[in-house]
């Protein structure tokens, strides 16, 4: 099979973005961190948890996500369990973002045309080109992005698509054992888009001075169970969930350009969680996006 070319994926994403809702906001340096999903790891909501850490560290996070396709709990499911309103109008979402520096954009509402595709995706229950496209069609013009994929062979081509879509800086990450996040269970591979150039590299937990964990150690559950895990992490309770969040938030800080390397990003993530600033961002979102 030929597979999807960067040009084809860019064209599909641009057409779909053209039909997306517009979010009026005064913030012009928004970031998203999301994965393609479909990795069948049944992990807790890693990128959603990390989004609060990134926001607590001063990154303007416009988290774009959906309900679960292949796991028990997608980002929309876990945030709904935490009391976040998925159905605010675009103008209201813009106000939330301006006031708090974080907002959740429910993909189903941001892309009305998707209603014709979603039933087929749910029926298939397997990854499709829409998994690859979803993280690319953020309704805002993102400046930076951390994008997870479960297929490492697509790292460079996905970074090329992000370049085509106008990202100033981005990281595409493929974790060990097919994880669409950075993992503590082996070698994580990344493609860094910086100054128009794409660089491939990899790292292990040991490279960052971190302890390794098996993928089974970060298994999640349903939306309510994953909400409890998210809260435990933001409360700085020691666990593999905390360490995995620290790793991915650290990578996010590096993708955003807040730090010069992943190790410094990990240190910043620990500091933000320990200070309570990540939990504070959750409380703010619960207050304003309700």
UniProtKB/TrEMBL annotation:
GO molecular function, one term: anthranilate phosphoribosyltransferase activity
Cellular component terms (Gene Ontology): cytosol
Record keyword DNA damage present: no
Listed transmembrane segments: none
Listed EC numbers: 2.4.2.18
Catalytic activity: N-(5-phospho-beta-D-ribosyl)anthranilate + diphosphate = 5-phospho-alpha-D-ribose 1-diphosphate + anthranilate
GO biological processes: L-tryptophan biosynthetic process
Record-annotated Glycosyl transferase family domain positions: 29-279
The protein's enzyme class: transferase
Keywords from the UniProt entry: Amino-acid biosynthesis, Aromatic amino acid biosynthesis, Glycosyltransferase, Transferase, Tryptophan biosynthesis
InterPro entries reported in the protein's UniProt record: Anthranilate_Pribosyl_Tfrase, Glycosyl_Trfase_fam3, Nuc_phospho_transferase
Annotated pathway: Amino-acid biosynthesis; L-tryptophan biosynthesis; L-tryptophan from chorismate: step 2/5
Entry similarity comment: In the C-terminal section; belongs to the anthranilate phosphoribosyltransferase family.
Name of the protein in question: Bifunctional protein TrpGD
Organism: Streptococcus mitis
């Amino acid at each position: 099979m030929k597979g999807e070319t960067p040009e084809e994926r860019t064209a599909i994403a641009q057409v779909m973005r053209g039909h997306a809702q517009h979010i009026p906001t005064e913030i012009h340096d928004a970031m998203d961190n999301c994965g393609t999903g479909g990795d069948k790891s049944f992990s807790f909501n890693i990128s959603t948890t990390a989004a609060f850490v990134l926001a607590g560290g001063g990154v303007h996070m416009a988290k774009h996500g959906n309900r679960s396709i292949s796991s028990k709990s997608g980002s929309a499911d876990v945030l709904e369990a935490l009391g976040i309103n998925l159905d605010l109008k675009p103008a209201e979402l813009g106000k939330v973002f301006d006031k708090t520096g974080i907002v959740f954009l429910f993909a189903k509402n941001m892309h009305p045309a998707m209603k014709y595709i979603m039933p087929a995706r749910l029926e298939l229950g397997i990854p499709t080109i829409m998994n690859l496209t979803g993280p690319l069609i953020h309704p805002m013009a993102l400046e930076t992005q951390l994008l997870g994929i479960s297929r490492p062979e697509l790292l460079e081509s996905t970074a090329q698509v992000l370049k085509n879509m106008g990202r100033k800086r981005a990281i595409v990450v493929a974790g060990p054992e097919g994880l669409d996040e950075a993992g503590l269970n082996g070698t994580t591979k990344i493609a860094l888009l910086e100054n128009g150039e794409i660089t491939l590299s990899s790292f292990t937990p040991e490279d960052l001075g971190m302890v390794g964990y098996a993928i089974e150690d970060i298994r999640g559950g349903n939306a309510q169970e994953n909400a409890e895990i998210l809260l435990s992490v933001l409360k700085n309770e020691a666990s593999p969930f905390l360490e995995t969040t620290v790793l991915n938030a650290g990578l996010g800080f590096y993708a955003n350009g807040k730090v010069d390397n992943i190790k410094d990003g990990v240190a910043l993530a620990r500091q933000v969680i320990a200070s309570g600033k990540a939990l504070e961002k959750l409380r703010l979102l619960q207050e304003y996006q309700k």
